[in-house]
TrEMBL record:
Residues 299-362, 363-419, 420-479 form the SLH domain. Gene3D superfamilies: 1.10.530.10, SH3 Domains. Signal peptide: none annotated. InterPro entries: Cell_Envelope_Struct_Comp, Lysozyme-like_dom_sf, SH3-like_bac-type, SLH_dom, Transglycosylase_SLT_dom_1. Transmembrane segments: none annotated. The keyword Phosphoprotein does not apply. Keywords: Signal. This is S-layer homology domain-containing protein. It holds the Pfam family SLH.
Length: 479
C-alpha cells in the first residue's frame, strides 16, 4: 500500500506541476497579448518626446515622422505588429536596417522608437548629405536632408520637380514638415532649392546625386519648442489661450500676440490621454501676474534683459531666429553693453556665411591661434571686412565705434554713392569714415544720433548694431 500511495502522490504532484506550468504559460501569453496593444496617445507622446530629447533630436521631427509612417501605431487592431508591404516595422516603420533586432522592432515599441531616432541622428551626422547653414541640431529646418534620408534619397523625394524646377510638395520631407505644421501647430520656413542643386533620373530608382553640398539660407528659422526652462522669458507668437489646465479641454483667457510671459516650470503633457496633440504645455505667468498653461507651439524665445517695447527688440529677435546671435549667456542679450570688435566680427562672418577654413594668419601681435575667435578674425581680415589698428594689433575687446561700423558695412555691402549731402556736422569732409557714413545715410541704414550729429567716435551698443545689421540685410534683399 505504501508503495502504491507513493506512486499516486508522485503522479498527483506531477499533474499539479504540469497544471501550474500551464497556468504560468497562459499568464505569460495573456501578458504578451495585452502588451501588443497600442498605448494611449499621452503615453506615446511622452515616449516620443523623451527618447528624442535623449538623442538630441527635436521632438517635433520625431513625432511628425511617426505620424507619417504609422499614425503613432505599433500594432494593428488585431494586436499584430504593424508591418508594411515594403517591410517597414512598427511605429517608426524601420525598414531593412542592419544592427537592429527585427523581433524587438515588432513587439517592443520603445525599442522601435529608439531605432528610428537613432537612424535620424545618424542621418544628421552623415557627410554625404548636404548641410543647411551651420547644421544647428535645435533648428527644425536644418534637419531637412536627414529627414529625406529617413525615407530614402530617391528621385521621388527630390526637393524640386526636375521638369519644372518647382518645389515638390510630395517629397517625404515636405510631408513631414506639413505634419509639424498641422499637429505641432508650428510653421517652418520652406527652403527654396533649384534643380541645378540635384542630379537624378526621374524614371530611375537610383539615388539622387547632390551637386550642392552646402546650402545657406537667411531664415528666420524655427527652433525646437522643447528647450524652455523655468525663469526664462518668452513671448506669444499668436493670439492664444492661457489655459487653466494643460489640455485643450480646459477654459482659458486670450493673450495677444507678442505678450511676454515667464516660464514657471517644466513642460507637461496633454491631460486628455486620448488626444493626439504633438505639442506639450508650459506653465507660465504673465507680466500682470496671470498664471496658466500655454501650448509650446505658440511660444518664442526672448532674451530676459531686452525691455518690452524697445526699438531694437524686433531686430534682436530676427537675428536670433536667423541664428546670427546667441546672446552672452544665462538668457541675456547684453542689452546696453558696448559692442566689441570681436563681437562685430562674429555677427558679420555669420551673416555673410564666411568659410573659416584655410585662412592666412593675419599676423596681429595681440592674438594668436589659441584665441577663441582667431578663425573668425582671420577670415574677416582675409575677406577685407576688417583691418588692424596702429601697432599691428586687432584689439578684439576694444569698442566698435559708429565710424568703424559705417566703414565695415560699406566694405562688405557696397552701398551706392550718396547723391547730395548729409546733415552731420560732426563728420569732417575727407575723414576716413565720411564717404561710408554718407553712403549708409543715403541707403537709409542710419539717420544719426540727432538730426545733425552722427557720433562717429561714439561707442556702438549691441542693440544699436542689431538694428543697423537688420536694416542692412533688408537693403541687400531689396537690391
Amino acid at each position: 500500500m505504501g508503495k502504491r500511495l507513493y506512486v499516486i502522490l508522485i503522479a498527483l504532484l506531477s499533474f499539479s506541476f504540469i497544471f501550474e506550468s500551464f497556468s504560468i504559460s497562459v499568464d505569460a501569453a495573456e501578458t504578451k497579448t495585452s502588451a501588443m496593444n497600442n498605448p494611449n496617445k499621452q503615453t506615446i507622446n511622452k515616449m516620443l518626446t523623451e527618447i528624442a530629447l535623449e538623442y538630441n533630436v527635436p521632438p517635433e521631427i520625431v513625432k511628425a515622422i511617426a505620424e507619417v509612417e504609422s499614425s503613432w501605431q505599433q500594432f494593428k487592431s488585431a494586436g499584430e505588429p504593424l508591418i508594411s508591404d515594403d517591410g517597414g516595422i512598427g511605429i517608426m516603420q524601420v525598414t531593412n536596417q542592419s544592427g537592429y533586432d527585427p523581433e524587438r522592432l515588432k513587439f517592443d515599441i520603445e525599442y522601435n522608437i529608439r531605432a528610428g531616432v537613432d537612424i535620424l541622428r545618424k542621418n544628421f551626422n552623415r557627410r554625404d548629405l548636404p548641410a543647411i547653414n551651420e547644421k544647428n541640431r535645435n533648428v527644425l529646418e536644418h534637419w531637412y536632408f536627414a529627414i529625406m534620408a529617413y525615407n530614402g534619397t530617391k528621385p521621388v523625394n527630390s526637393p524640386v520637380v526636375q521638369s519644372t524646377g518647382k518645389p515638390n510638395p510630395e517629397a517625404y520631407q515636405e510631408k513631414v514638415y506639413d505634419i509639424i505644421k498641422d499637429f505641432s501647430l508650428t510653421n517652418v520656413t520652406r527652403l527654396k532649392f533649384s534643380r541645378e542643386d540635384f542630379q537624378y533620373n526621374p524614371d530611375s530608382d537610383e539615388n539622387i546625386k547632390f551637386i550642392t553640398k552646402q546650402f545657406y539660407f537667411e531664415g528666420p528659422f524655427t527652433k525646437t519648442k522643447y528647450s524652455f526652462h523655468q525663469g526664462q522669458k518668452a513671448e506669444t507668437t499668436a493670439d492664444v489661450y492661457l489655459r487653466e489646465s494643460p489640455t485643450t479641454d480646459s477654459k482659458g483667457t486670450t493673450l495677444k500676440t507678442g505678450e511676454v510671459i515667464t516660464i514657471t516650470g517644466p513642460f507637461q503633457y496633454e491631460e486628455n490621454v486620448n488626444k493626439q496633440n504633438h505639442f506639450v504645455w508650459y506653465p507660465v505667468q504673465t507680466e500682470t501676474g496671470k498664471k496658466g498653461y500655454i501650448a509650446s507651439s505658440y511660444l518664442k524665445y526672448r532674451f530676459n534683459d531686452v525691455p518690452v517695447g524697445n526699438y531694437a527688440e524686433e531686430a534682436i529677435s530676427y537675428l536670433y531666429d536667423c541664428g546670427l546671435l546667441n546672446g552672452i549667456g544665462d538668457d541675456q542679450f547684453g542689452f546696453g553693453r558696448k559692442l566689441t570688435r570681436y563681437e562685430a566680427v562674429l555677427l558679420l562672418t555669420r551673416a555673410n556665411h564666411i568659410d573659416l577654413s584655410n585662412r592666412p594668419d593675419p599676423g596681429f601681435v595681440d592674438i594668436n591661434q589659441s584665441y577663441p575667435y582667431y578663425r573668425e578674425i582671420a577670415a574677416a581680415v582675409d575677406e577685407g571686412y576688417f583691418k588692424g589698428l596702429p601697432g599691428n594689433i586687432f584689439d578684439p575687446n576694444g569698442t566698435f565705434t559708429r565710424g568703424m561700423m559705417a566703414e565695415v558695412l560699406q566694405r562688405i555691402y557696397q552701398f551706392p554713392e550718396l547723391s547730395g549731402s548729409f546733415p552731420f556736422t560732426d563728420v569732417p569732409s575727407g575723414s576716413w569714415y565720411a564717404d561710408s557714413i554718407g553712403r549708409l545715410y543715403g541707403a537709409g541704414i542710419t539717420t544719426g544720433i540727432s538730426p545733425t550729429k552722427f557720433g562717429p567716435e561714439n561707442s556702438l551698443t549691441r542693440e544699436d548694431f542689431a538694428v543697423f545689421l537688420v536694416r542692412t540685410i533688408n537693403w541687400k534683399n531689396a537690391n
